[in-house]
Amino acid sequence: MIETPRLLLRRWRDADVAPFFAMGQDAEVMRHLGPPMSRADCEAAAMRQNACAEEHSTCFWAVERRADGVFLGFCGIKPGPAGTPIAGQPEIGWRLARASWGQGYALEAAQASLDRAWSATDWPGVAAITVPANERSWGLMIRLGMTRDPAGDFDHPSLAPDDPLRRHLTYRIRRPR
């Protein structure tokens, strides 16, 4: 578990699936991510993240607000997706419910995830990916100190050639000295 002044980043619980499903039905949350997620998709994602935590001691953690225990979304670091230029590399990612946008939670959770990576691993760096239209996401990457790696931009192999979300930008951050 990772604690910040306002957040807990922790393993996924069964109770997280319902609010995660609600997030996955929000067209604004999913605008740059793909179609709405089914409940089964959400259950599988939670199980994958817990399995990732077992195998790698890290994952896209469930994010809980400490003040009231509300599930806000996820944030963390996991191995990058197969078939992409960041396959197997540490990839930071996040997704928060729209009601929690604009309150600094994503930055707080992402910075805590990076701090943990630098203190608990020997990774030389961490990558992040997003679609060009997702200005909120790549804006957060920049605020985290990440820089764009144009040579690492790619067309996501799991998306159809005509899918408007196929093109992905890659950002990177190196381990602080």
Provide the residue-averaged pLDDT.
Answer: 94
Number of helices: 5
The SSE string, one letter per element, is: EEHHHEEEHEHEEE
How many beta strands in the DSSP annotation?
9
Largest sheet: 5 strands, antiparallel
Bulk shape: globular
* N- and C-termini, Cα separation: 25 Å
Question: What fraction of residues sit in β-strands?
Answer: 25-35%
Radius of gyration: 15 Å
Spatially, the strands of the biggest sheet line up as 1-2-3-4-5
What portion of residues is helical? 25-40%
Residue windows where pLDDT falls under 50 for at least 5 positions: none
Structural class: alpha+beta
Summarize the structure in words.
By secondary structure, this protein is α+β, with helices and mostly antiparallel strands. It has a five-stranded antiparallel sheet, with helices on both faces. Strands 6, 7, 8 and 9 form a four-stranded antiparallel sheet that branches. Strand 3 and strand 4 form a beta hairpin. Helix 1 crosses helix 3. The longest helix has 18 residues. The radius of gyration is 15 Å and the shape is globular. The two termini are 25 Å apart.
Helices, strands, pairings?
Blueprint: E1 2-3, E2 7-10, H1 17-25, H2 27-30, H3 39-56, E3 60-65, E4 71-79, E5 90-96, H4 105-120, E6 125-130, H5 135-143, E7 147-148, E8 154-155, E9 167-174
Antiparallel strand pairs: 1-2, 2-3, 3-4, 4-5, 6-9, 7-9, 8-9
Helix pairs in contact: 1-3
